User: What shape does this take?
Amino acid sequence: MRETFVDTVSTALDHDPRLAVVTADISRDAFAPAHARHPHRVLNVGIREQAMIGVAGGLALTGLRPVVHSYTPFLVERPFEQIKLDLGHQDVGAVLVSIGGSYDDPVWGRTHQGPADVALLDTLPGWTVHVPGHPDEVAALLPAALAGDGRVYLRLSTRHNATAHPATGRFTVVREGHRGTVLAVGPTLGNVLAATEGQDVTVLYASTVRPFDHRGLRAAGHTDVVLVEPYLAGTSAHEVATAFDDVAHRLRAIGVRRDREVRAYGTATEHDVLHGLDAAGIAKTIREFLR
Amino acid sequence: MLYDRVLNVSPDTADDPGRDRFLLSKGHGPMAFYAVLAAKGFLDPAVLDGWTTFGSPLGQHPDRVLVPGVEIGSGSLGHGLGLGVGTALGLRAQHRTTPRVFVLVGDGELDEGSNHEAIALAGRLCVPNLTVIAVDNGSASHGWPGGIARRFEVEGWHATTVDGRDHDQLYAALTARHDSPNAVVATIREA
Assistant: This one.
């Protein structure tokens, strides 16, 4: 996904004088060719994440469209007040693009994990949040984000699904069933499809979660919902509640656990098991919920 | 001083991309700012009477969305300088070499680490259209050994310390052109 992002943005810089890229050392080398062509619009600020967002806000105040990129916790958590004030409060837009997901590479430990990113951005108004599950979806989502004026978060991952789905902003029906709806977000779809094999459930897929496709969820026709997100469990629970605010419904949320800090290294696959985001864990949760 | 003799901005050019910009980073000092904006025609003087009341655009911290002529919403300290660096870089990226960006910070506000990221970055990226006015009224809890100007100089800025009540010194420092970003430390001490 990162390669698709860098290639797409680097090409767009050649054609759109409004675009600017701001990095804080992460992916600096990947943008080096673009920097050589556009030294004043591809800015690496060094390891200064507060300045990274502040500079982006200033660029936007002059009419540019900043694309800001770093590792998930360093893009969203560390400079969160800058995101709130230097972008939101100034009423300017930007495209924030993270890599690393929640725990794409757990060997680096807790400091490099960012499962709270979407939940944090959810506290701020006006953000569009994309969680692509395939590099082709990145390519499909970026043009509108780059051409717009709003505040957009694009959450990239090294993990992806086998195939891409149309990035329409609406939920896609991947499988139809009768006992409930399983909503898979971004890269969780592969495990969700494996988990629901042979189960009589509808599977929806989302690569855009804000705005949340309330109508699409209701259109699936079930009020028993299993929400599978690759970040903090239940991040979109309030959106499901909004979708069904006039009817009784049940929700089971699967995602990165909130009950304790995970102090483990290893692989992302091992962390999936720990959070119940592996196919077996998802299948077990669905079976128990729809029993 | 700034609005009388230095800044190239007026109500008619408040949205002109070629205007000079003044960013009040220490947003807790907006009363004089509002008065100047009213005196210069950016806002109706009658609005001043409603200061901080519900429905008034004028609060204890200025909001750019609510007040014409206010370039940034500020209040939480340590944000204006990063925005100012970005603004200066944005102007450079658009080949606008004439407009200048002035950011007013307090000496206490300089404690915020975000300022030091911005000071170092501006020095490295060399944005000569950026001027910081650091009001030094001795309010930083732990002070600045060696002086505030030195802090900017080591990062590649041109820095001048002046009497903050001396208009001629201020004018000379604020209108001087350098090849590096410019810091004007305006010292204010009780008599």
